């Protein structure tokens, strides 16, 4: 029989040898893995000069490792949140090797992106393209294939503001205000108040505010108190002042809409930069194909995206010239050929190509039908 004596509070210890096992890139990552490409591109393209390193290296993680981790995450997954970056650096061997075994928190990445990556992402994108062009000597940058697509904005579909309707409502309101001013002048003359408002004035809410201030001054001169609440009878001058105050607010709102829209014919209240455009046909919901969105232009040479331009123009025809101007600012030259569909063909675009020695590879509307 076995002994019934059991030792209490017995804590066993498993002894381990203090072996220092260091992982290397060659031991875990294959030579043709995308991680090797990202690490090489980040280190050799000199994009680290777009990162502020004066304080990061002193009280945080290494700038090169942080930048490489961010670039690797966006390369592998397209979009990565700060929490996901923290999880990758803690559990993924590829990110552990990139960061040198360190495990930055999500706040470390937030401070790095917000405080240290101060330059525009367009500069980093251009620098990487120049590096790719240098490494891949076979890239033909003389030919740039241009095309665009529309992306729906994260905005409510019913938050639209139409500028033509805004202009009509603004003109209608101004006519009502002028008619009311004429009646007010007659009432002032009847009450023997020596003051007359001009009805020959340009359309602006500043003038309506001036009318409100003058009415308030008249009320103070005649010792008319401003009353509020139920059971209080308002003086007719107070009613006139409140009418013009509300009208000034409406005029200010219309003017604000016109300033936000600029040269566009519409915009969204929840996303003022988005313009209502005709999207692709919706097979599941045949209505609401007119949605707020952005027009994204891309230029591609030999499979590489060379330039991206996001605009609020509803069609591709107006976006071609700003897109080519951006390409020239990035690379200092124009391509010789820019093949594109018939959505880009216009007199202005053809003239622009002639001026900058770009061959006319833009189709014009109705070309195929004419053939």
Describe this structure in words.
The chain has 371 residues and is an alpha+beta fold. The chain has helices at 25-28, 34-44, 56-59, 63-77, 82-91, 93-98, 106-116, 121-135, 163-190, 205-221, 236-261, 320-331, 347-355, 367-370, and strands spanning 145-152, 160-162, 266-268, 275-278, 290-301, 304-311. Strands 1, 4, 5 and 6 form a 4-stranded antiparallel β-sheet that branches. Strands 2-3 form a two-stranded antiparallel sheet. Strand 5 (290-301) and strand 6 form a beta hairpin. Helix 5 crosses helix 7 and helix 10 packs antiparallel against helix 11. It is elongated. It starts with 24 loop residues before the first helix and ends with a helix. The mean pLDDT is 86.
Defining traits:
single chain, 371 residues, alpha+beta, four-stranded antiparallel beta sheet, two-stranded antiparallel ribbon, 14 helices, 46% helix, elongated
How big is the Rg?
Answer: 33 Å
Count of helix runs: 14
- What series of H and E elements makes up the topology? HHHHHHHHEEHHHEEEEHHH
The residue fraction in helices comes out at 40-55%
Q: Would you tell me the structural class of the helices and strands?
A: alpha+beta
Q: Provide the β-strand percentage band.
A: 5-15%
Oligomer: single chain
Shape: elongated
Q: What is the mean pLDDT?
A: 86
Distance between the termini: 104 Å
| Total beta-strand segments | 6
Contiguous uncertain segments of 5+ residues? none
Sheet with the most strands?
4 strands, antiparallel
